[in-house]
Specification:
five-stranded mixed sheet, three-stranded antiparallel sheet, Coagulation Factor XIII, Chain A, domain 1, binds 2-acetamido-2-deoxy-beta-D-glucopyranose, about 240 residues, mainly beta
Length: about 240
């Protein structure tokens, strides 16, 4: 049971600040800020999961000059959110692209490779993946991801909060990456479109963030590839 006072506190926390995807690091290396497509600092989040902005956020169709090189199975990637002050799940997708500099970004096939929702079972409104330690989310590039250029879609969701919010808020951005050294192979067997992967009524988007029902959290966007996981799967801190 959540008191109105508590609900107000959570509302303040959840809506206090936006969040922008600012950088990527591979295996603990330096932060690369040149591969991240412009993501406005401080938000705003995307509220309509059926809008084109759900793909790569606002201005996500604007290419940048950098490309981050990763190796399937060997690159432990960290994406940086700044600030990351809100509560909620985190999700990572990749889509093969003819060129990392493509624009627009519609019509791509997105494969979910990592997700983390409730990280402390029983933690209530504070048991979520976000806020992330230092704004950093870690995941491994799948070992069988075929080489080539991809857009990496990182998403940090804020869910409806005890009735204070009617809809999920998506902080989302894209990073230009190049997968190298892995053997050529078939494309991932799981892929979804954006827009299209999410519907406004998805259980994972209407979940009560502040007073969540018992886990598992029903992630939107289908299973993770290649594991097929529908619960936490980020290779770090899984429960
Ligand atoms: C998108 O980029 C344009 C041009 O740089 C800028 O004026 C606008 O504020 C940006 N949009 C958002 C939502 O930040
Ligand atoms: C990835 O890097 C993070 C940060 O250094 C670390 O906590 C995590 O254990 C690493 N994951 C794997 C699977 O090595
Ligand atoms: C990706 O890596 C391959 C192999 O090193 C290289 O030939 C190619 O030019 C790179 N592509 C981009 C866009 O960086």
């Amino acid at each position: 049971m959540i008191t109105p006072f508590f609900a107000l506190v959570y509302a303040a926390v959840v809506s206090a600040a936006g969040s922008a995807l600012t950088a990527i690091s591979v295996n603990g290396g330096p932060w690369d800020t040149t591969s991240t497509r412009p993501s406005p600092a401080g938000g705003p989040p995307v509220l309509n999961v059926l809008a084109p902005e759900i793909i790569c956020g606002y201005n996500g169709t604007i290419p940048v000059k950098g490309v981050t090189t990763v190796v399937g199975g060997k690159s432990n990637v960290t994406v940086l959110w700044s600030p990351d002050s809100h509560i909620g799940p985190n999700l990572i997708y990749v889509a093969p692209v003819p060129s990392p500099y493509i624009t627009p970004v519609t019509g791509l096939k997105w494969t979910k490779i990592s997700q983390q929702g409730i990280s402390i079972p029983g933690g209530g409104g504070t048991g979520w993946s976000s806020p992330l330690p230092g704004g950093q989310y870690h995941f491994i590039i799948p070992p069988t991801l075929p080489p080539g250029p991809y857009l990496l879609r990182a998403e940090s969701l804020v869910l409806p909060n005890g009735g204070n919010f009617k809809t999920a808020e998506s902080f989302v951005g894209c990073i230009q990456i190049n997968v190298t050294l892995t053997p050529p192979g078939p494309p991932p067997s799981i892929a979804v479109p954006f827009p299209g992967a999410y519907s406004p009524g998805d259980p994972g988007l209407t979940w009560n963030l502040a007073a969540p029902p018992p886990p598992p959290y029903p992630f939107p966007g289908g299973p993770v590839w290649p594991s097929g996981a529908t619960t936490n799967d980020n290779d770090v801190g899984d429960i």
